[in-house]
Amino acid sequence: MSQIVIPHCDRYPQDEIRRHLEAHRFGVLVCHRRMGKTVLALTHLIKQAVLNQRANPSYHYVAPLRNQARNVAWDYLLRFTAPFPGRKVNEQRMEVMILGRKIQLLGADNPDALRGIYSDGIVLDEYAQMKPNVFSEIIRPMITDRMGWVLFSGTPKGQDHFFAQYNFARREFAANPGGDWWAGLYRADQTGVIPNDELARIQTETPANIFRQEYLCDFTASRDDVLIPIDRVLEAQKRLYGEYELRGAPKVLGVDPARFGDDRSVIVRRHGLQAYPPRVLAKVDNVQLAGTVAEEIRDFRPDAVFIDAGYGAGVIDLLRSMGHEVVEVPFGGSPIKAGRYRNKRAELWGEMAAWINSGGALPEKETELAGEISSAVYDFDGAGKMRLEPKEKIKERVGKSPDLADALALTFAAPVLGSAAGRAAGLQQSYNLELTL
After folding, report:
1. pTM for this structure?
2. Which stretches within 148-280 are classed as H helix?
3. Fewest beta carbons less than 10 Å away: which of 45, 289, 299, 387?
């Protein structure tokens, strides 16, 4: 067969996403508006159809509504299949035949029309707008006989079945990167698809919760009980303080040892208003973790080290036996500001939120940390004290424990003064600047 060129060239992140889709049977793609997911999905369908050597391959693109599929995808499908010789088009059925392979556009608004047909590959576009049972009751049986693949794609619409599917895929991919499942999330401020100046204009012209949802892919945007919204987190990731700006500020180390059943321990450094990328340790025992924390202490020279007491008792004892001063922090214990917070964990996160709002800087490329920080919701008890959603509930809702965020929150366990040498250096720096001026 002579070479056929589809009139499309991938841009970032389409090229990266395509590699993942070709390596996994099930993919969940969360992306911002205008990223190009429909073009990516259709060209993926066409490529997989051409490569399929089985008898009578059949592929489907499913939108929430049949008219939506026609308006959004039909023209693209015609354009991308135009180079194929002998192409057959059925306008009424929204179906194209190329090289004996069928690609059809369908709508999830008429699920009975999907029953009883087979498929080698299916794209569920804007999955959040479909009924939750579409996949389990209709789509899954369609691919069973042919061992077909499925791509779930769309933009967040709250913490719904699409949110649950994304978290399930993310857990599966983390546990087995070479397995069936992959999950990816692409925000507008990351991809560069929308120019920065245009994105800034969109942000000023769009309600904050809509912008967070449609362009920052925030599943919590429709909630008003999120303690630290994602836009605040992203603003904090744009800040960066120089060494001279941090002189005299306290250095603090937060340590969140692995919980029962989990396999990661986390260490976070914070120097005043600047937080640094977390150090994540997989499957280490207490001796190994204590040794790593000791290395951090020798290198960072913190003014205080706070460790989660609930799972870190062994690590705390080992570090103290080495001569290091560390403070155990019981998450369920009493807060310092007892009139404001229900317990210590609520205080840790509340003080972290206040730090971010007052100019705290988060490491720029730590997307997992950013997601965890913006995952917690809160309310108030009968006495008007703030309480945070239990960690188990967060894990149940988003699919993972917020260990990275907890490690950073631990750095706010108590007020810490900078070292005398650091404060003196800060004063000297200030004095020198005044003389220079």
Report:
1. 0.68
2. 161-175, 188-191, 196-205, 208-214, 230-237, 243-246
3. 299
